[in-house]
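Before the break, one more example. Copy the sequence into your notebook; we will annotate it together after we see the structure.
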Amino acid sequence: MKVAEIMTTDVEACPPDVKIQDIAAKMREINVGSIPICEEGKIIGIVTDRDIVLRGIAEELEMDAPVSEIFSETLITGTEEMPVEEAASLMARHQIRRLPIVRQEQLVGIVSLGDIAVRGKTPQEAEAALEKVSEPAKPRR
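Here is what the structure looks like once it is written out:
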């Protein structure tokens, strides 16, 4: 099974100049934990609810600061033709719960561990990916 068969295609994306407050409100409105950051359809990063807390609030940034100050620029992406098993393995290896799907650097969808678990035909892959993603990190002290 290919990622194209299970990915979400109507993905909300925001530009890098959107305010942190506005992107947090958008996450609440559409009930998601991350939003891709795009310029002219090209994905340049992703912001998660965790980014807002750790890089925004904990660093005492103003909530009207642009999301470009906190989003993750290191991207792990997949393709529509990628087998679901490969996507699950990639997500596990990089400990990510959501994988943006691109075609020629343009965002065309996103696949989550939930998509793999619910719609994929590989429950073992979803379980393995979830287990790996959920490994506790060692605290820095």
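The chain has a mean pLDDT of 88. Residues 3-133 form a domain with the CBS-domain fold (CATH 3.10.580.10). Try to locate both features in your own notes.
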